[in-house]
Design a protein that fits this description.
The protein is of the alpha+beta class. It is built from 1 helix and 3 strands. The radius of gyration is 14 Å and the shape is globular.
């Protein structure tokens, strides 16, 4: 999270993975984010909407997939 937006969130977010692919007029962006504490679906939706709006302003048309996980960045998957 950029420093100017740090005080807007009640959670520490860490970018785990990012991928951007240009597909004609739109850019397809996939983001995976881990967080601390508990996050409601409404809070996730608010972050997703804000992220979409900011990226759209910066790069133009896009398709965004933003996935949240409460697992730490280096968590070992369990079966």
């Amino acid at each position: 999270v950029a420093a100017e937006h740090g005080d807007e969130l009640a959670h520490d977010l860490t970018l785990v993975d990012a991928c951007a692919i240009s597909r004609g007029k739109a850019t397809e962006i996939d983001l995976r984010v881990s967080y601390t504490g508990a996050m409601t679906v409404a809070e996730q939706d608010a972050v997703r909407a804000r992220t979409y709006a900011e990226l759209r302003e910066r790069i133009g048309p896009l398709r965004l997939t933003l996935v949240f996980s409460d697992h730490p960045i280096h968590a070992v998957p369990t079966v």
